[in-house]
Amino acid sequence: MREVLSIPAGKTIKNIKGYGIHAFPYPRTTTYDQSQYIAFRAEKGGKMDMLYSIMNEIVLNPSDENLECKLHHLDDASKDRILRYINARKTTKFGFEKKNHTYKFFVLKEEQSLPHEPRPQGRNTAGHTYYTYEEITCGKDEVIVQSKL
């Protein structure tokens, strides 16, 4: 198992932080390996400020009419967070880039703050990367990627 999955968040960073939800088109051509933690890179500079764990995963089509029925097995707080996240994304210019498509939703739990806001050494790449827990929490401003994809 990889320790820390790092994902570029782009314009969805506000929604990820606000609702504790991350969503991406599913299935993907490149998959995320199972990781103990997940961090999101800010659009400018790739700074990361929090490590999350994934509490739940669910695949949904955000355009479905009966979303609440498909969330019946989740706790009320997780259901509410997913529904508010979907509504927020639908009402912004970013929206859901693939209409009538399924997305995988991660329900996140904040685990550890990264007050030093580490960023990738060199250029912030467009794809996801992996870091060791030690590397990302050691206090350095620039961290070395363990591996890409």
Summarize the structure.
The chain is α/β, with parallel strands linked by helices. The two termini are 13 Å apart.
Structural description of this entry:
The model has no long low-confidence stretch (mean pLDDT 92). By secondary structure, this protein is α/β, with parallel strands linked by helices. Helix content is 21%, strand content 34%. The two termini are 13 Å apart. The protein has four helices and nine strands. The strands form three sheets. It has a four-stranded mixed sheet with strand order 3-1-7-9. Strands 2-5-4 form a three-stranded antiparallel sheet. It is globular and about 45 Å long.
